[in-house]
Amino acid sequence: MAVLMDRAGDIAAALRGSTLEDHPVEEGLGGTFLVQNVDPARVLEAWQAARAAMPLTGRWPVFTLPGDLHHEPEPAELVELDRAARTLDPWSVYRRYGADEAQDRHDVERYVDVFLGADLVEPALQQLRPPTTSHVLQRWIYDTVLADPQLTTRAFSGCEHLVGTNRWHTWPEVQLVLLPTTAQWLAPAWVSYFGAARDNGQAGWAAAMRQWERQWGAGLVAAWGTMLQFTAARRPEPGPQAWELAGQLMAVGGSLQCEQWQLAIALTRGDAWFLHDRP
Question: What pTM was estimated for this model as a whole?
Answer without folding.
Answer: 0.95
